[in-house]
Amino acid sequence: MLFIKNLYKSFGNLEVLKGVNLTVNKGEVVVIIGPSGSGKSTLLRSINYLEIPQSGSISIDGIILDAENPNSSTINALRKSTAMVFQSYNLFKNRTVLENITESLIIVQKKSTNEANEIAEALLHTVGLIEKKHQYPSSLSGGQQQRVAIARSMAVNPKLILFDEPTSALDPELVGEVLNVIRKLAYEKMTMLIVTHEMGFAKDVADRVIFMDDGVFIEEGTPKEIFTSPQNERTKKFLHQVLDKI
Amino acid sequence: MNFNIDYGFMLQILPRILKTLHITLGLATMAMILGLIIATILALIGVFKIKVLHPLSKVYISFFRGTPLLAQLFLLYFGIPRVLPIFAGMNAYTAALIGLSLHSAAYMSETIRGAVISIDKGQMEACLSVGMSKLQGMRRVVLPQAFRIVVPPLVNSFISLIKESSLAFTLGVAEMLAQAKMSAASTYQFFESYLVVLLVYWAIAIVVGILQDKLEAKLNQAY
């Protein structure tokens, strides 16, 4: 469903993605782990074209974006078939919880206000925040804001949801409620690509885990393979450091 | 020292000065609206760094901020019609309106640009990620948030415009200051005449300030 071929991206002289190849199948949950600065977030943001890759290609269900030859209709189609959940939630601050979700339904998908409200309310039930629908983001906790952001991403009706460290900005006691919502999506066979530092969650929810370092994929496999018997030295070292902390 | 203030005279000329209030307020309000439109366009050119237009807008802003308004008005009213005959029929009020609009736009565009770039970049990214275009994101999410930030400095600009509209009297527009000057010249009661007109300007600024507080309270609801 998602095919990334030989994706390359640099910021000035700093090479961040050095030829990344990735395939994600429909209904699959792929978790990318790795140290800070390894290019995980940049990869995710490139898929939504929030970062502009220099070469390689990204294709989702027949929409093919050639990084050396991007055109705006392909970029738009790519963005409409994916949705992004950000580390810092990025809810529209000038819109209520309900309006945050209806915005794309009305503006992008051209649905009527009534229909958009119905969809948004159903999504708010899913993330357990229907009673907050008329509040503004600033009055919500981080965990609640992130759950609204997940509902907003689902409203796009995406083929793939990209999670960019969705719990990294949260207080520890709020991480669980967000992970539970993502877990729920995994059970419903939503295709997801997740960058996270929550190793327990990765073990639990992933169909496949990829360890990334220095702009390339070092190792990939089932959670069991990666977490209990990693083959590569760098993977071993990273897991050792991360898991030791706990 | 002779310090007898003729309060009776002040009350007597107040209605005459207030009769020209609509010219002052009309000039300032129209210049504010036109100035805001030009300023928003200039600000967006600056935010998106649009080719060719961006350096031109910088020259525009630099010129109108770097030269005196009074000299700009003189050039516009007395100078331009000499070289561009189509402006020969331009009356003083129109010239003052154009001059004030162009001048205030230069200041306000910088205010608006600053407010727009102060909005967290994640807001626009979120718009793009749900499939909105840059323009839709600007119009529906970024600009409304920037508007809240920009209200206090824009109200300042409006108060400045009300005061600067008094320069129109030098072109022969019969606004409030011109009326006060006439009263002063015909009676030699300079102190009272100019004091009255200053108090009127001050009162307007106070009223505008009260309206600003109300608007800000409304805009801050979401935060």
From TrEMBL, chain A:
Return the GO cellular component terms, semicolon-separated: plasma membrane
Q: Is-annotated flag, keyword Iron?
A: no
What the entry lists under PROSITE patterns is as follows: ABC_TRANSPORTER_1, ABC_TRANSPORTER_2
Q: What topology does it adopt in the membrane? A: Peripheral membrane protein
Q: Provide the ABC transporter domain boundaries.
A: 2-239
Q: Which UniProt keywords apply?
A: Amino-acid transport, ATP-binding, Cell membrane, Membrane, Nucleotide-binding, Transport
Q: Which GO terms describe its molecular function?
A: ABC-type amino acid transporter activity; ATP binding; ATP hydrolysis activity
Protein biosynthesis recorded as keyword: no
Lineage, top-rank taxon, reads: Bacteria
Which cell locations does it reside in?
Cell membrane
Q: What InterPro entries would the database entry show?
A: AAA+_ATPase, ABC_ATPase_HisP-typ, ABC_transporter-like_ATP-bd, ABC_transporter-like_CS, MetN_ABC_transporter-like, P-loop_NTPase
UniProt record similarity statement: Belongs to the ABC transporter superfamily.
Q: What is this protein called?
A: Amino acid ABC transporter ATP-binding protein, PAAT family (TC 3.A.1.3.-)
Recall the taxonomic lineage recorded for the source organism.
Bacteria, Bacillati, Bacillota, Clostridia, Peptostreptococcales
TrEMBL record, chain B:
Keyword list (alphabetical) reads: Amino-acid transport, Cell membrane, Membrane, Transmembrane, Transmembrane helix, Transport
InterPro entries referenced in this protein's UniProt entry, alphabetically = AA_ABC_transptr_permease_3TM, ArtM/GltK/GlnP/TcyL/YhdX-like, MetI-like, MetI-like_sf
Q: Which NCBIfam families match?
A: HEQRo_perm_3TM
Instruction: State its location(s).
Output: Cell membrane
- Keyword Transmembrane applies: yes
Report TM segments: 20-47, 59-80, 86-108, 191-211
Supply one GO molecular-function term: L-cystine transmembrane transporter activity
Report which superkingdom the organism of origin falls in. Answer: Bacteria
Residue intervals of the ABC transmembrane type-1 domain: 21-212
Q: List cellular component terms (GO).
A: ATP-binding cassette (ABC) transporter complex
Q: Which family does it belong to?
A: Belongs to the binding-protein-dependent transport system permease family.
Topology in membrane: Multi-pass membrane protein
Gene3D superfamilies according to UniProt = MetI-like (1.10.3720.10)
Q: What is this protein called?
A: Amino acid ABC transporter membrane protein, PAAT family (TC 3.A.1.3.-)
PANTHER family cross-referenced by the UniProt entry: L-CYSTINE TRANSPORT SYSTEM PERMEASE PROTEIN TCYL, MEMBRANE COMPONENT OF AMINO ACID ABC TRANSPORTER
